[in-house]
Write a structure and sequence with these properties.
The chain is mainly α. 61% of the residues lie in helices and 5% in strands.
C-alpha cells in the first residue's frame, strides 16, 4: 500500500498546494479567512517536507541496542510536532479537509521503502521482546499492559529459540531489571499511539503484517523437530497475546490482527510439520503429539490431499529404493497406517500414500517372510495386535480376502469423501486393521499361511527339548486371523512333536540314551520335507552314529509296526566335543555329514579329498564343503593335495611338503613368464564385489549360491561371473573366516 509514496513527487505536492490556494481564492467553503501571501502555503509545505526529510536522514541506521526504542519514540514525537505546526500554520490558508489532505501527502512521501523497512525492524524486535517478556515475566507484563490486552497464560517447554542472535541480546538488555522493562513497554505503547496520531497507520498495514509474519516464523521454527509434546496450542496462545495488543494499539481497517495471526500460525505450522512428516512417521508413537497438532491444521484448512501427495513423493524418493531393507519399508508402512488414520479417519490420505508402497512391496521377494516374522515376533507391534484381537467368530467369519475390521478404532466414524470414491479399490480397506492391510497386499492369504508353515517347521525342527508352548500360542493366534481350516497342517506338526516326545520317553531307558532326541514327523504334512525328499544327502554314517540311530528305529517299529522311518540327515544336529593337542573344542549344531568327515579323520589322520569321499561313499563335491567346515575351525589343515588333523607332526609330511613346494614354485615361475593368470584377475574382481555380498547378507540374512549370483547380476550390470567362480570365491571367504556356510546357505560370521 505504501508504494504510492513513489508517485507523490515534489511536483505533485506543489500541485496539491496550488489546488488548496485555488480553493482559497475562489472563496470555497471551509476557509473562513483570506490569504495574505499567495506563496505562504507553498512555502509552508516545502519547509515542512524539508524538515521531515532531514529528520528521516538522521534516523536511517540499524537497530542494535535497546536505545532504538527511545530513538523511534523521539523520531515519531518530532514528526508529531511538525504535524502540529503544519496544521496550525495551514489553518489561515486552507480548510481543515484540505490541510489534512496535504499532510497525508507529506506523510506518504515521508514513509518511503527505507523508512518502512526501519519501522518493520522496530516492530519485529518490539514484538519479539514483548512475547518473551510475557512468557518470562507474565505478572509484571500483565500490570504494564493493563487496559490494552488480557494476557493468556500458557506453558511451552518444547521451544528452542536462538539465544545467540542480536535480537535476543536486545531482549536481555530490556529484561535485566523492572525499570528497563517498564521503559520499553511505555516507549512502545507511546510510539504506537503516535503512529495513529500522525495518520501513518494507513500506509503501514503491509509492514505490520510482515513483522508479524517474521515473529510467527520464528516461533514456528523454534519448535522444529520437537515432536514429543504438543506445540500448536502454545504458539497460538503466545501469538494471540501479540495480536490482541496490536488490535488495541494499531487497529487495522478491515480484518483484525487476531484473525490474521491465527490463520498464519496454522498455515506456517502445517508447512513445517508436513515437511517433517516423513521423520514424524518414523518416530511414531513417540511423535504422536506432532500428529495431533497437524490434525488440527488439516481440519482447519482442509489440505489433506496436498499433504498426502507431498508425503507420497517423499516416501517414493527416500524409502522405495533398493538400499532400503524390506523390514524397514514395512515398519515405515505400519507407522504410516497408524499416523495417517489419526490425521484422516476416513483413510483417504492413507490410500493415496499407501498405493506406491504396496506396489513396491509386491515386487520384493521377502515381503511375505518379513510380515510373518513380525507377526510371530513378540517385540513387534503386529504381534501385540494379534495377541489383543478377540476370538469373536463374527469377526473371523466376516473377513474377506484377509480383511478384519478394526472395531476398537478410537476415532469417530466419518462418511467417505466424494473425492475418495475413485481412490479406493474396495470399501473394506478403509476400516481394515493394520495386519489386514498387509495381508491384502497380495490377492490371496494362502501365501502367508504357507510361509508361516515353513517358519513353524523350522522352529520345531530346531527344538531339541520338545517345548512347543510358544509355537502353540502362535498357531492359535494365526487360527483367529486365517481360520482353523487353513492351519490344519500346523496342528499336525504340533501333534507330531507331542507324539515324538512320548516315543522318546518310551525309547530312552537309561541315562546314555538321553544324550540324543529324535523328532518323528508326518512327511505329507511338512511341506519343507516334501521338497527335500529328492535332495536328501547321500553318504554313509560312521558306525558310532549308525548304531544309535538303528537302535531307536527298532524301538519305534516295535511301538508303531505299521510305520517305517525315513531319516533326514540334512535336518539332524549334533553337539561335538573334540580333543585337539590337549585342548577341547566344543562345536554345536553340527550336521551328520560334517560329523562323518571328522570320524573319517579319526581313523586316518591324513587323507586326500578323494580318500575321504571313498570312506563316506559320496562325491568329492559333497565332501569338500564339509572338510572346509573343520578347516575353518582349526581341526583340519590343508597340506598340498591332502588334508590332515592338526595333531599330525610336521616331520611326518616334510618330504611330501618339500616335493609339493617344488612343484608349486615351478608353476609360479611359469605363470610369471606367461603373465597374471585369469583366475587371479577374476578373484580380484570378486573381491571388489565383496561389499555387495556383505550388504546382501546383512539385509536379507543367509542366502544360497544361486540367489547371491542372481543379485550380483542385478546390482552390477555386465558382470560375467559364473556360478562356479562365485562358489570358489565364497569358499575362499569361508576359509579366510569372513563368511560361514551351513546347509548350503552363506552367512556373515
Amino acid at each position: 500500500m505504501y508504494n504510492v509514496c513513489d508517485v507523490v513527487s515534489d511536483n505533485a505536492l506543489s500541485a496539491l498546494v496550488q489546488q488548496v490556494k485555488a480553493h482559497v481564492k475562489n472563496g470555497s467553503s471551509g476557509v473562513g479567512f483570506a490569504v495574505h501571501n499567495d506563496n505562504s502555503l507553498d512555502q509552508l509545505s516545502s519547509s515542512c517536507m524539508r524538515h521531515l526529510l532531514e529528520l528521516r536522514s538522521k534516523t536511517e541506521k540499524p537497530f542494535t541496542t535497546a536505545a532504538m526504542f527511545d530513538s523511534m519514540l523521539s523520531y515519531l514525537q518530532d514528526i508529531s510536532t511538525i504535524q502540529h505546526d503544519f496544521e496550525q500554520h495551514a489553518m489561515p490558508v486552507a480548510s481543515k479537509a484540505n490541510a489534512q489532505m496535504a499532510w497525508n501527502a507529506l506523510i506518504c512521501r515521508m514513509f518511503d521503502d527505507a523508512t518502512m523497512q526501519q519501522v518493520q525492524e522496530w516492530l519485529y524486535i518490539s514484538l519479539y521482546c514483548l512475547s518473551r517478556l510475557i512468557k518470562t515475566h507474565s505478572s509484571e507484563m500483565g500490570h504494564l499492559l493493563q487496559g490494552f490486552t488480557e494476557l493468556t497464560n500458557y506453558e511451552d517447554d518444547a521451544s528452542c529459540e536462538d539465544t545467540e542472535s542480536d535480537v535476543f541480546a536486545i531482549y536481555e538488555q530490556i529484561s535485566r531489571d523492572s525499570n528497563a522493562m517498564s521503559s520499553f513497554v511505555s516507549a512502545f505503547i507511546h510510539s504506537c499511539k503516535l503512529l495513529v496520531e500522525i495518520r501513518a497507520l494507513a500506509y503501514l498495514q503491509i509492514t505490520i503484517k510482515q513483522a508479524v509474519d517474521r515473529i510467527i516464523e520464528d516461533k514456528v521454527q523454534s519448535h522444529a523437530q520437537q515432536w514429543e509434546v504438543p506445540c500448536l496450542e502454545a504458539i497460538c496462545a503466545e501469538m494471540s497475546n501479540i495480536a490482541t495488543m496490536l488490535d488495541a494499539l494499531l487497529p487495522p481497517p478491515t480484518q483484525s490482527h487476531l484473525k490474521y495471526v491465527e490463520d498464519q500460525v496454522y498455515t506456517q505450522f502445517a508447512q513445517l510439520r508436513v515437511h517433517e512428516l516423513f521423520g514424524i512417521i518414523i518416530d511414531y508413537p513417540d511423535s504422536k503429539a506432532a500428529i495431533d497438532d497437524l490434525r488440527l491444521c488439516v481440519q482447519r484448512h482442509r489440505s489433506m490431499y496436498k499433504i498426502a501427495y507431498s508425503l507420497r513423493a517423499s516416501i517414493q524418493e527416500r524409502l522405495l529404493h533398493p538400499g532400503a531393507t524390506t523390514s524397514d519399508i514395512l515398519t515405515q508402512y505400519i507407522s504410516a497406517i497408524r499416523c495417517l488414520r489419526l490425521l484422516d479417519p476416513s483413510s483417504t490420505m492413507l490410500e493415496i500414500v499407501a498405493r506406491p508402497i504396496r506396489e513396491y512391496l509386491r515386487t520384493r521377494d521377502n515381503t511375505v517372510s518379513c510380515i510373518v516374522q513380525d507377526m510371530v515376533s513378540e517385540e513387534s507391534g503386529l504381534f501385540e495386535d494379534m495377541a489383543n484381537q478377540t476370538s469373536d467368530t463374527s469377526a473371523v467369519n466376516g473377513r474377506a480376502e484377509g480383511v478384519v475390521f478394526d472395531e476398537d478404532c478410537s476415532q469417530p466414524w466419518e462418511p467417505l469423501p466424494v473425492e475418495a470414491k475413485t481412490i479406493y479399490k474396495t470399501a473394506q480397506r478403509r476400516d481394515a486393521d493394520v495386519l489386514s492391510l498387509l495381508v491384502s497386499i497380495y490377492d490371496t492369504q494362502d501365501i502367508f499361511v504357507d510361509e508361516f508353515e515353513a517358519y513353524l517347521a523350522k522352529q520345531l525342527l530346531n527344538s531339541v527339548d520338545f517345548d512347543t508352548e510358544r509355537e502353540i500360542k502362535q498357531v492359535e493366534m494365526m487360527k483367529l486371523r486365517f481360520g482353523a481350516e487353513a492351519l490344519e497342517r500346523c496342528e499336525v506338526m504340533l501333534k507330531d512333536v507331542a507324539d515324538s516326545k512320548r516315543i522318546w520317553h518310551n525309547a530312552n531307558t537309561n541315562e546314555a540314551d538321553n544324550a540324543y532326541s529324535t523328532l518323528v514327523i508326518s512327511r505329507q504334512f511338512w511341506q519343507q520335507q516334501q521338497q527335500q525328499t529328492a535332495t536328501n544327502e547321500q553318504f554313509v554314517l560312521p558306525p558310532q552314529m549308525s548304531y544309535v540311530r538303528d537302535r531307536f528305529a527298532k524301538t519305534f517299529e516295535a511301538l508303531r509296526p505299521a510305520r517305517k522311518l525315513d531319516w533326514r540327515d540334512s535336518q539332524s544336529l549334533l553337539d561335538i566335543c573334540i580333543e585337539v593337542q590337549g585342548r577341547s573344542i566344543k562345536v554345536n549344531d553340527v550336521r551328520p555329514a560334517q560329523a562323518a568327515v571328522l570320524f573319517a579323520f579319526q581313523e586316518t589322520p591324513r587323507m586326500s579329498l578323494h580318500e575321504v569321499a571313498q570312506v563316506m561313499e559320496s562325491s568329492e563335491d559333497f565332501v569338500l564343503p564339509r572338510v572346509r567346515f573343520w578347516q575353518t575351525r582349526g581341526v583340519l589343515r590343508e597340506a598340498g593335495n591332502v588334508f590332515e588333523t592338526v595333531e599330525v607332526s610336521p616331520d611326518d609330511v616334510a618330504d611330501d611338503n618339500r616335493a609339493q613346494d617344488m612343484v608349486s614354485n615351478s608353476d609360479e615361475e611359469e605363470e610369471e613368464e606367461a603373465g597374471p593368470p585369469e583366475a587371479d584377475a577374476q578373484s580380484e574382481a570378486l573381491r571388489m564385489h565383496f561389499n555387495y555380498i556383505v550388504g546382501m547378507l546383512t539385509n536379507f540374512g543367509p542366502l544360497p549360491l544361486d540367489r547371491i549370483h542372481s543379485m550380483l547380476g542385478m546390482f552390477i550390470p555386465g558382470d560375467t561371473t559364473t556360478p562356479d567362480e562365485l562358489r570358489a570365491f565364497l569358499t575362499q571367504m569361508v576359509r579366510e573366516d569372513q563368511l560361514d556356510m551351513s546347509g548350503g546357505m552363506y552367512k556373515l560370521k
